[in-house]
Amino acid sequence: MKKYYIKIKLLLKKNMLLWVIVGSSQLLLVIACEDFVEVDPPRTEAVTESVFSDEGATSSALAGLYSLMAETALGNGIFGSGLELFTGTYSDELINYSPSTARLELGSNNLTSENEILLNQFWQFAYNIIHNANLIIEGVESSDSLDPEFKKTVIGEALFIRGFSHFYLVNLFGDIPYISTSDFEVNAIAGRDSESIVYERIIADLSQAKEALPVDFEFTQGDRVRITKGAATALLARVYLYTGEWELAQEESTGLIEQSDSFVLENDLLSVFVVQSREAIWQLKPVLENPRATRQGQNFILFSQPGFGGVSIRNDVYNAYEAGDNRRSQWVGIFNNGSDDFYYPHKYKVGITSLPSEEEWDVVLRLGEQYLIRAEARAQLNNISGAQSDLNVIRNRAGLGNTIAGDRQSILEAIYRERRFELFAEWGHRWLDLKRTGLSDEVLSILPDKDWQSTDVLWPIPEQELLNNPNLLPQNPGY
């Protein structure tokens, strides 16, 4: 039997965090004081069941989970622009300038199972998030002192976060363990579930969350930094799209598009990624030394020629925009070093420094994606006019004319193209689109800086995890 030790570390920054660590790499529980909810100060007895005996302490535990997702000190993992940064260089969006071995492997599609980014910032980070979500679910479910409606909301948020994290793990690594308990002994020997089973469990978590969560943002004073029914609906629509459940994808996305009292497509492209964006379905409030900047803004905005750690947009991506596409002029920045232009994602305008009046929050889910989800689902269902209508909403907002695609195959190709420019440098969409549509071989094999193999569609399970738990074997093909 494995032995675990408990270490309590109090970290004082702008926001107060209490991290309770179990084992050398696993995060047991995070308690935080965040200003999206009124909570009691963190307490060291959080490791006991008493943390879930009252709403204040429970809210503090939940706030800690949100803080963990946004905390820059933990790296650029799934919730810290790592998806955009690392899948962007792994695909055909971004050029990597970092000389680090791990970054070079990602940029050239030459991954090894010893890659520290895959281990620390994706696999372990995501499972730490999942573990914390499970602790909250179990603690709240077992509490007899909490208000039933309050319990439903907290459990719904934690279920969503668990499903969200597994969604990215299964898309990056393929078959993975779906972890639904905080029991270390069970999790330490968990085997990999098939992708189909993982998706079934993601859908179950999101469906339960959807039923439990509030419809509006009244409980957050209007800020969109908490997960609501809309977020669960949005991710369900995406999951159904990925699994080929076209009718269900159309149904979920339609539910959001028609909820115009809460979500509206912003006509102004510069209003999409601001704090007050009406298009945002869920935003993460940054926990950074510069609290007004997102991690995306800090990582992507170029104030000089990209050097160590920097990235830029590939020239062929910049040149592939249609003439008159306002997304190129408003969402792409240009830095000139005197002789060459370097393009960079500029959806977020606040970088390392900011003016006091500026503030941005990370838009995790937004309505623009839902129009593209419904367009694709409708095309797959041979509703060509409906697909055209949804695609034209996005194109017209970008300053482009209506699509000329008039049959199922051409409209699907037009939708994939539109996703490339609408969702670039957002939450790994480009890489996941290449993977799920089977276009990765065609697109990546011709790039001269890539060493693309068909087996590269899945990342390797980190070697350290295989050594710790042989039940994760066999390794993914090609590694």
- Counting DSSP E segments of at least 2 residues, the number of strands comes to 9
Write the element-wise H/E pattern from the N-terminal end onward. EEEHHEHHHHHHHEHEHHEEEHHHHHH
Tally of individual helices: 18
Class by helix and strand content? mainly alpha
The termini sit apart by 30 Å
Percent helix among the residues? 40-55%
Biggest sheet statistics:
3 strands, antiparallel
Poorly predicted sequence stretches spanning 5 or more consecutive residues:
1-28, 32-48
Q: In which order are the strands of the major sheet placed?
A: 1-2-3
Give the rounded overall mean pLDDT: 88
Percent range for β-strand residues: 5-15%
Name the overall outline. Answer: globular
Q: Can you offer a commentary on this structure?
A:
It is a single chain. This protein is mostly helical and 479 residues long. The protein has helices spanning 55-70, 82-90, 101-108, 116-142, 148-173, 184-187, 195-212, 229-242, 246-257, 295-300, 315-319, 326-331, 367-380, 384-397, 408-422, 429-436, 440-444, 463-468, and strands spanning 6-12, 16-22, 26-32, 94-96, 280-284, 311-313, 332-336, 341-345, 362-366. It is built from 18 helices and nine strands. A hairpin with a 3-residue loop joins strand 2 (16-22) and strand 3 (26-32).
How are the SSEs placed, and which strands pair?
Layout: E1 6-12, E2 16-22, E3 26-32, H1 55-70, H2 82-90, E4 94-96, H3 101-108, H4 116-142, H5 148-173, H6 184-187, H7 195-212, H8 229-242, H9 246-257, E5 280-284, H10 295-300, E6 311-313, H11 315-319, H12 326-331, E7 332-336, E8 341-345, E9 362-366, H13 367-380, H14 384-397, H15 408-422, H16 429-436, H17 440-444, H18 463-468
Antiparallel strand pairs: 1-2, 2-3, 4-6, 5-9, 7-8
